[in-house]
Write a structure and sequence with these properties.
This protein is mainly α and about 250 residues long. The chain has 11 helices and no strands. The protein has one domain. The N and C termini lie far apart (about 45 Å). One of its GO terms (cellular component) is plasma membrane.
Length: about 250
C-alpha cells in the first residue's frame, strides 16, 4: 500500500490526471514519490503515443505537431514550462547567486523567460513536424519518459540550494539515486525496444543535455531548485525531439 500511495503522489504532483480523495497526498507520500517519476513518464508516453497515432492520421504533420506539443505540456498543467521560464530569467540575469534565487522565485515572467519558452516550444513543434506518423508515435512514447527521468537525474546530480526550503526539499531523500538509476534504465530500455540502437542514441542525447544543464546550474547557483528541475524536464524533451528529427533527416 505504501508503494501505491507513493505512486499516486507522483501522479498528483506531476500531472493533472484526476485522483479520488486524498490518497497519496501526504508529505511522506510526496517524499517517496521520485521513485515513480519515470513511471509517470511511461504512462504519459503511452497516452501521448496514442494521441500522436490519431493526430498524424487526421491532420497535416505541422498541425499535428502543434496539437501534440499542447497535449504534452497540458499533462502537467505547464508546470515544467513555468520552471523553464523562471530558470531562464534567473540563470541568464548576470546577477549574484543570491539575486538569481530571488529572481527565480518571482512569479512574474521576464524577457529571458519568454525567449526560453518560445525557443523550446518552437524547437519541439518544428522537430515533430518533420516526423512521419510512425516516427511521431515513437517520439511521443519516449519524450515524457525522458523528461521525468531528467528530473530525478538532476536531483541525483545536484543538492537543493534554497536555504529557506521549498517544495523541492520534500523530494530530496535517500530515494533519489535509486530513482535516477531506475529512470535511466527505463529510458534506455524503452528507447531500445521502440527504436533499436538509434533509441539509445536519442536517449543519450537527452541525458547529455541534462548533464550539461546540471553543470551550468552548479556553476551559477551551486545546485538545483524546483524551477531548474522543471527546466531540466523541458530541455530533455526538447533535445530528444531534436535528436529524433536529426535521425529522421539521416544525420546519423
Amino acid at each position: 500500500m505504501k508503494w501505491l500511495r507513493r505512486c499516486a503522489a507522483a501522479f498528483r504532483f506531476l500531472t493533472i490526471l484526476p485522483l479520488p480523495g486524498s490518497f497519496g497526498a501526504t508529505e511522506e507520500d510526496l517524499a517517496g514519490s521520485p521513485l515513480f517519476f519515470p513511471v509517470v513518464g511511461l504512462v504519459l508516453g503511452l497516452i501521448a503515443g496514442a494521441c500522436a497515432w490519431v493526430l498524424w492520421r487526421l491532420v497535416p504533420p505541422p498541425v499535428a505537431a502543434v496539437l501534440l506539443t499542447f497535449i504534452l505540456f497540458s499533462f502537467s498543467g505547464a508546470l515544467h514550462l513555468d520552471g523553464l521560464a523562471d530558470s531562464a530569467d534567473g540563470l541568464f540575469s548576470a546577477r549574484s547567486r543570491e539575486r538569481i534565487l530571488v529572481i527565480m522565485r518571482d512569479s512574474r515572467i521576464g524577457a529571458m523567460g519568454v525567449i526560453a519558452l518560445v525557443m523550446v516550444l518552437a524547437l519541439k513543434i518544428s522537430a515533430l513536424s518533420v516526423l512521419s506518423r510512425d516516427e511521431a508515435v515513437r517520439a511521443a512514447l519516449l519524450i515524457p519518459i525522458s523528461g521525468r527521468c531528467a528530473i530525478v537525474v538532476m536531483m541525483a546530480l545536484l543538492p537543493y540550494v534554497r536555504p529557506e526550503g521549498g517544495l523541492g526539499t520534500l523530494f530530496y531523500s535517500r530515494n533519489v539515486k535509486p530513482a535516477a538509476l531506475g529512470g535511466l534504465l527505463l529510458l534506455f530500455v524503452a528507447g531500445f525496444l521502440v527504436m533499436g540502437l538509434p533509441g539509445l542514441l536519442v536517449a543519450g542525447a537527452a541525458m547529455a543535455a541534462v548533464a550539461f544543464f546540471a553543470l551550468f546550474c552548479r556553476l551559477k547557483i551551486g545546485g538545483a531548485t524546483g524551477d531548474t528541475l522543471g527546466a531540466a524536464c523541458e530541455l530533455a524533451e526538447a533535445f530528444m525531439v531534436l535528436a529524433l528529427a536529426a535521425l529522421a533527416g539521416g544525420l546519423f
